[in-house]
Each structure stands twice: as C-alpha cells, then as structure tokens.
Design brief:
With 157 residues, the chain is mostly helical. It has seven helices and no strands. The longest helix has 24 residues, at 121-144. It is globular.
Length: 157
C-alpha cells in the first residue's frame, strides 16, 4: 500500500508539519510521564483509525519500557487494572477530547475535574496540547493514507 500523498516530498507540507512536529517535541520535555503521553496518543490514534500513529507510538512506548499488557489493553482501559488513576484520567480526557464531534459540549466537567486532581495547570496544558498535536497527525495521516507496519522506534526523533 502506498500513501496517497508523500508529505515529506511536498515543500508546503514539510513547512507546515515541521511546526507541528516541533510542538510535539516541546511537549515531551514537560513533567507529564512519557508513558502517559504515549498511552494518550495510542488511544486517540485508535479512535481516529490512524494505523501509522498506532504503529509508531506502540513501538516507541515498548522501546521506552512500556509493558505489552498495558499496550494491548489501551482500547479497554476502563476494564483494565494495569493503569493508575492519573493515567485513567488522562485516557478519559484523550477520549473525550478526540471525540469532540460525538459529544455535545466536548470534554465534560467531570472528566476535566478528575484530570485536574492528578495534574497541575502546566501538566494539563501539556495533556491538552499533546492531544491536539496527535489529533492533527492522525487526521493528516488518515487523509494521506500513510501505511503502517514499517516504523522503527525513534525513526523520527
């Protein structure tokens, strides 16, 4: 399978995506655990059907030490006992923040309040911004139909 569009061959796309990539890198330097950010990226990518991002973030998370069971259970995080309360709050935020069109009113006050119990204001900003970035990547990759499966951990980093 070939992508519809080679985003790396288009000078316009390269200019635009370079800023989104830079934003994502900046957010990785915060105080939110990398594992939490990766879990959120995986969950948003599952919801959006972005195979390329799922390939990338599951492999990067595994390379960083994430366990297979936690990676396998992201889609069923509510029923899984392997996530902390803080991670659950981040995953709930990721789901509602990704499904904005499905939820009148967007992220509920309850989900926000639960996240705010575990994360300070700066960390909440990182969570929200990371979610916006992964949703942008998901949309671009799904539209261009980037194929999944060949990503190597750290390939873009």
């Amino acid at each position: 399978m070939d992508a519809r569009l080679n985003m790396f061959a288009s000078p316009t796309a390269v200019k635009a995506w370079k800023h989104i990539i830079a934003a994502g890198k900046l957010l990785e330097d915060g105080t939110v655990p990398t594992s939490t950010l990766e879990l959120m990226k995986i969950r948003a990518s599952q919801i959006n059907g972005c195979g390329y991002c799922l390939d990338m973030h599951t492999k990067d998370a595994a390379a960083a030490g994430e366990t297979p069971i936690r990676l396998h259970l992201v889609a069923a995080w509510r029923e899984a006992t392997v996530y902390t309360d803080a991670e659950r709050a981040a995953l709930a935020l990721a789901e509602q923040g990704t499904r904005l069109a499905d939820a009148a009113g967007g992220v509920s006050d309850e989900v926000w309040a639960e996240a705010a119990k575990h994360y300070d204001e700066n960390q909440l900003a990182v969570l929200v911004s990371s979610l916006a970035v992964i949703n942008a990547f998901n949309r671009g990759n799904v539209i261009a139909q980037l194929p999944a499966g060949d990503y190597q951990p750290g390939q873009h980093g």
